[in-house]
Amino acid sequence: MSDRKIGVYICHCGGNISDYVDVKKVREAVQGEPGVVVAKTAMFTCSDATQQEMVQDIREQNLDGLVVASCSPKLHLFTFREVARRAGLNPYQYTQVNIREQCSWTHTDDKPGATEKAIRLIRGGIARTALTEPLEPIKIDTVPKVLIVGAGIAGLRAAVGLSDLSISVILVEKSTAPGGRVAGLGKMYPHGKNGREIISQLVDEVKKRKNITLFTGAELVGKSGSIGNFTVKIEVGGKKVETVEASVGSIIVATGFEDYQPAAGEFGYGIDGVVTLAEYKAMLDNSGGKPALGGREIKSVVYVYCVGSRQQTGDNPNKYCSRYCCNAAVHAAIESAEADPKIRQFHLFRDMRTYGKFEALYTEARDKGSVFIRYSDAEPPEIQKDAGGRLKVTVKDLLTFGEEIVIPADLVVLVTGMVPRSNNALVDVLKLPVGRDKFFNEIHPKLRPVETVVDGVFICGTCQGPKNSAESVASALSAVTQSASILKKGYVELEPLIAMIDPDKCKICDVCTGACPYSAIEKGQHRGKEVAVVNEAVCKGCGGCAPVCPANAINLKGFTDDQMESMIDAMLKEIV
Amino acid sequence: MAETTKEGKGFAPRILAFSTNNISDPGIDLAGSSHMHYPPTVIVISMPCTSGIKPEWMLHAVQKGFDGIFIASDGEECAYLPDCSERASHIVKRAQEMLVKNGYEAERIKMAAICSVCAEPFTNQIKDFSEKIKTLGPARKG
Known about the structure:
The structure holds two protein chains of two kinds.
Chain A: E1 6-11, H1 23-30, E2 36-42, H2 48-60, E3 65-70, H3 73-87, E4 94-98, H4 100-104, H5 111-130, E5 138-141, E6 145-149, H6 153-164, E7 168-172, E8 187-188, E9 193-194, H7 195-208, E10 212-215, E11 218-226, E12 229-236, E13 242-248, E14 250-253, E15 257-259, E16 274-276, H8 277-287, E17 292-293, E18 296-297, E19 300-307, H9 325-339, E20 344-349, H10 359-367, E21 371-374, E22 382-385, E23 391-397, E24 403-409, E25 411-416, E26 418-420, H11 424-430, E27 457-459, H12 469-487, E28 491-494, E29 499-501, H13 511-515, E30 521-526, E31 529-534, E32 554-556, H14 561-572
Parallel strand pairs in A: 1-2, 1-3, 3-4, 6-7, 6-14, 7-10, 14-27, 16-25, 19-20, 19-25, 20-21
Antiparallel strand pairs in A: 5-28, 8-9, 11-12, 12-13, 15-26, 17-18, 22-23, 23-24, 29-32, 30-31
Chain B: E1 15-20, H1 24-33, E2 42-47, H2 55-64, E3 68-73, H3 84-101, E4 109-113, H4 119-136
Parallel strand pairs in B: 1-2, 1-3, 3-4
């Protein structure tokens, strides 16, 4: 028998459940379960009236457990945790049982079957609840300081943004000067703003701020602690390598991208006059007037798009679209045409993706004489030197049903995309999640776009995928907001459903330490013996360490052996 | 569900499915929202991550009356552990060994990666698995 006092509420969901599940029969079958003192049905458990009734029952009957059998926990887990909290019941002594998505809606064809299943599911929920203990969220005080790794346009802008909010910043840049990629750019879209100028304004601003410390020639080499209070180690190069240690509340990673480097022979790369987009941009910026190659004016340019992006074959194909290159190439073409209105420009594309406001650029390029020819990925353009030593591009034009066109050119620009930087050391230090495309991964691309699974570590800019500079800055500022929302509150609360190690069973064999990629398991003392202990602030609550413990000393709170086994037993009980 | 008898043609296998809160559970929810049918003798327990399922629980479930265990795993999508699939298959292997040692068929445990929108794959997999368990018969004989 159980000495618990559990309230069970079964939802009709206005018919969504009760049309397919006999809720009255379910209530009768569960009201006699061990520990159950209240068992009710309601038209809508989430309604204000029923919530109020639950609060009243919990208070009046002194309930120490709550089971709500309604929809998926994705909908109302937090609603009913709040109900428990309002009634003075610990929110972690409530269990949600999903009898809608995973019962009534699935078994609309079998009412007796669905009813029996609902009974089993709820009995399991009651058994689990009977073994819950009150848990408190883990509270951590936060340090009002942020470490930003990478001082490109994203890192610099994030530093200024945090400084504006009176949050101190340590900005670490690996190379000898801040600025990143944009510092190497001339005119940018829109308004023809100069990349170098934008960066130098940002750098001036950063240097002016007293609460920003910039380290160049520096690298992050160590991180310990957890969200709200990390200890970071930075190695600062120079004549003598120095190590700086600091406490920060969060970390923003803005380490940027690498240009795709074509292999020798790829679209003729290596032949004199075949350059990447980045190389051509530099030529344009430095020419001062008409673009030239080896002192000879360039009169015709052929652009080949999607080089290094949207690859379908190869060893490690870059399947993604690099997103910025169509716009950048079209922009370069407009610049070229402005420098020399007579220049002939041919764009060999697979699909033009001048999305959003960049469509205007595409139109402008066509107005200025650029010709766009669509090629098939199956039959890519060929770039060769002709007998006279001139570049010759052969392409099958998809839009004229595969007609072969030969274009003589002074210059071939390979419109290269972005590739992820190889940052193994940083990945190792921060335990950053790396996606299949090798860029860093956010938790949710739409709803949590700059957070990572490592609490307190944010990503922004092109280290998480191709972006243009405006998009990089937008994501940098969203990382600023996310950091500030934690650090301004002064503390963080963490979900307490984490692993726990029974010190009496632990034989300190180290298997669990090796199984935890978050380094959440440390050595500690228990009654004079060395044991493994879980760092509550670092544990993610995945439970991955629990099944590997040879002594079965580890349980995940909320999913303990006792809870799981009693749930299974309850689910299997005969239904009379 | 008229056919709950444990013998013969009317055998409806009891299947315990382990899903995960963020990946496979939404997929199974979606199967329900789309009114896709699978046998109501399939019951789901949701966990944070597939790698946290203990083999002992699976043995316990089979000993107590479940006829099959289906693991709707995170696969490559797991947000916690990059090697989740590898860990999970190791857990399944251990559980199968435990089952065999106790006189049950290893095939009573099956694992498949179910993504957050894998409504149809889940429905098909679980139906196939249920059919497969039918041919094995009830786990507890006699």
